[in-house]
Amino acid sequence: MRSSGRLKLGYYPLPEPEGVRLRNLLDFPPEGASVLDPCVGAGDALRQITENAGASLYGVELDTERARCATASGISTIHGNLFGASSAEESFSLLYLNPPYDHEIGSYDNKRMEYLFLKHTYPWLVQGGILIFVVLHAQLEPCIPLLSSEFGWFQVFRLTDPESERFDQIVLLAARKRVPADAQEMNRKALVEAIYRSPLPALTGAEPKYAVPATPPAKLTYRGLPLDEIETLLPQSSAWRKVAAFLLPREDAAIERPITPFHPGHVGLLCTAGMLNGVAGNGEDRHIARWQTKKYVTTFTEAEEKYTEIHRQERFSNEVAIIYANGRTLVLTDKKKGEEGGERAPAVGTA
Amino acid sequence: MENAHLRLGRLEYDRNVGKRQTKTWLHIDRFIGDKEQGYFLSAFGRDAEVGTITAAVHETHEFDLVFPDGSRSKVCFGPKPACFKGMLKVPELARPVRHLLVASATLLANGTAGTTILMNCAEDTIDLAWSTLVGLLGLPADPRWAKYILNQLEQDQRLRAISGIGCQPVIVQASREDLMECCGKALTGGKLPFPKKNGPVLWPRFTLAQALRIA
User: Fold this and answer.
1) Is A249 close to B206, i.e. CB distance below 8 A?
2) What are the CA-CA distances from residue A138 to residues A117, A142, A169, A267, A339 (Å)?
3) In chain A, residues 155-194 whose CB comes closer than 8 Å to chain B
4) CB-CB contact of A272 with A318 (8 Å)
5) Mean pLDDT lowest for which of A90-99, A108-117, A338-347?
6) What does DSSP assign to residue A125?
């Protein structure tokens, strides 16, 4: 899919005139029917093709805003990924399927989304239930084996809206039926003939109608993770506190001026604890100091008769890094001069 | 937040034992890595998936990483990584969601050995980046120096953007001494302001939630 399509989540809604024509091909039962749109969007197409039908409407939508619109318009909508949704087999009368026109993203054997959406949802259709499949003409090919083994009474039409013609969109109408093994080849031939008829007839709304079977209200459940809620909750995870020390800024607590002057011992303790960081000194000696505790590991070996013992000795020490107002820098450690640290002055004119 | 699926990546793991192949995957909300070396990962999923991926991380196995734009790459966290786990109670789910954080050995020693990994370093997160760098390296510095020093590091090619999900990470190839020298030179040249009053240097405070939400 192109980037522009990806940004729309592969969302190409059915043009309104096509929805009106499709509605003319459907006879809904007075007892009521459950209708599913697995890519319901804002629900416009589903409402059009079930207008005045008295049907129970169900949808699945990934986009938050569109799912909200669909719910507000009276469609029982699951906000999430279709592949996390499930329903009892044979619980819907009509499946309106206009899936994203894209490939799945896997390491190998990536299938088209049209096929995957059909495969996931067709078992939810009752026998005699109607499938309305809006796809790109070229993408019906991978669906032929599944369609010919599970559906019959095929009709394929070209959509004539300029937007649909631009993408070579077609609509396949079929009814679910048990196809005996010996009739599958004949069924497949009928389907192939319907798909590749030349020229492909345009959908006018005056074609033979399909009788939608009656079904009670269905139950559609979601077993996937609610990603939006989880993303909001993630900063509350206790695990973050464990990595904050080496990934996020450390909070420097500035302490208030003490009521009484510090004893030199207190000053020493506070310095080494890194709590007297900041600006100090006068004139040429004004500087910013920052204390740090460092771990030093000393390794030494002891050679015995048949083996060598390696000892590691750990100790903690403090060091202070200082930067003066005039650019001098200094790192004071408890190591001998020359081993580490030492005063440095920047080369003049190199800044 | 809305439409999280547009921002989340995927960590996939294939385990082949004999004739059996098991595929496990987790959602990723944050990742820091450089080519095939993963430094940091924040992922979530159900118990079994998190358990499997944790074991695979400790066994230094290789994973498939899927970025939000659909691009893929191989990733490994190297020897001696650390795994931290948390739990998220989601009201609509009966069982809590498991949260997994993986930190590579390099990230555990972040700021030492002349290399520092910053989770966010973009135009709008420059204060956070500078605060993190100063905190990790123990630099005597001022918050107002952020822009100049980070620009200087970029000019010296010591700051390199690496791949990330949910963040804009960079690697800073400079030790504390290098940065102190850089600050010292700039102070000598009068390019950086020095605090006028004695006392503590007040740094902007970032709570964990703020620091994570910035991305």
Assistant:
1) yes
2) 16, 9, 9, 79, 73
3) none
4) yes
5) A338-347
6) E
